[in-house]
Specification:
With about 325 residues, the protein is of the alpha+beta class. Helices cover about 30% and strands about 25% of the residues. The strands form five sheets. Strands 8, 9, 12, 15, 16, 17 and 18 form a seven-stranded antiparallel β-sheet that branches. It has a five-stranded antiparallel β-sheet with strand order 1-2-3-7-6. Strands 4-5 form a two-stranded antiparallel ribbon. A hairpin with a 5-residue loop joins strand 15 (about 195-205) and strand 16.
Length: about 325
């Protein structure tokens, strides 16, 4: 579709490097400054879809930055400013090579493992007798790391992380502490909107002066799973599906079309009508998670808008 931000190719003053991820593009400038641009690319099963989703980048960026500000009293983060709806500017960090996944409920990957009879996930025990989407007695941290080949996440235990020297014990204890504090705050923020924060992931980095900070997105529908609080217990008791807020609806659509990111599978075509429906759903997610009305940014000349706003921020 027209007017989606699928790719960027900026040359900002003092620019030293560019990294292009599945959804975000990160420009490294001098003085340890990063310009992170959230595109409208849609990723599912670690595959980027051929077409973008209007406003998706703006939605993810604005949720993430709002949540960063709502948690900065607990955990320091990389964010300095958001001069454009799709842009966040902050401090460059050396990322830790683990994602801190925390789960309050038996869902997603954990539920699939549980159904296979496994009661140990990333070195953490799960009790017998749980139903899918039941609440854990206490939230569990189940870290993930990127596979050496490909871009898939792989489960890893706390002990493996320490034994392999991926993170030293002193730093890892900080990551665990920050993860628990962020999840507790995220749970409280979700409850204010009538939602349950089911599970999420946090990524951290270390600044040049050795400070551990929160980086990347936080509590967005791409990185988190939410249930509607109203009717949760009744649905569990009746064995009915939970009402969810996440991009799970996209994954389920792809699965219904025979695609799960496996070798040899072809990405199904998304019609303009379906893409519009996905955009509308992301707007609904934004409004429900934040409790605010979504204000659509001007999509005319997106690249020019972003460039001008970034340059204005730096005074160029």
């Amino acid at each position: 579709m027209a007017n989606t931000l699928m790719d960027t190719n900026f040359q900002f003053p003092g620019q030293r490097a560019v990294y292009k991820g599945k959804v975000r593009e990160v420009y490294t400038l001098e003085n340890d400054v990063l310009v992170m641009i959230a595109t409208d690319r849609l990723s599912a099963f670690d595959v980027v879809m051929p077409k973008g989703i209007p406003y998706k980048g703006q939605i993810l960026n604005q949720i993430a930055t709002q949540m960063m500000r709502a948690t900065q009293d607990l955990v320091p983060n990389w964010l300095m400013a958001t001069p454009d709806p799709n842009v966040a500017i902050g401090k460059a960090c050396e990322p830790f090579k683990v994602e801190m996944v925390i789960r309050g409920y038996l869902s997603g990957h954990a539920a699939r493992e549980y159904k296979l009879g496994k009661r140990l996930l990333c070195g953490v025990s799960m009790i017998d007798g749980m139903k899918e989407k039941d609440k854990y007695p206490q939230p569990i941290i189940t870290p993930a790391t990127k596979a050496e080949k490909g871009n898939h996440d792989e489960d890893i235990s706390r002990n493996e992380i320490l034994e392999k020297g991926i993170v030293c014990e002193k730093d890892y204890l900080v990551l665990e502490d920050y993860t628990q504090k962020l999840f507790q705050r995220g749970t409280e923020l979700a409850a204010q909107q009538g939602l349950i924060l089911v599970d999420t992931k946090y990524e951290f980095g270390k600044t040049r002066d050795g400070k551990i900070v929160l980086i990347d997105e936080i509590h967005t529908p791409d990185s988190s799973r939410y249930f509607y609080e109203e009717g949760y217990l009744e649905r569990q008791e009746k064995g009915e599906p939970q009402k969810q807020l996440s991009k799970e609806f996209v994954r389920q659509w792809l699965i219904s079309k025979g695609f799960q990111g496996l070798e040899g599978q072809e990405v199904p075509q998304m019609s303009d009508t379906y893409i519009t429906s996905v955009s509308d759903r992301y707007i609904e997610l934004y409004e429900r998670i934040t409790g605010e009305t979504f204000k659509k940014a001007n999509l005319d000349n997106i690249h020019e808008r972003i460039e001008n706003n970034v340059l204005d921020f730096f005074g160029d």
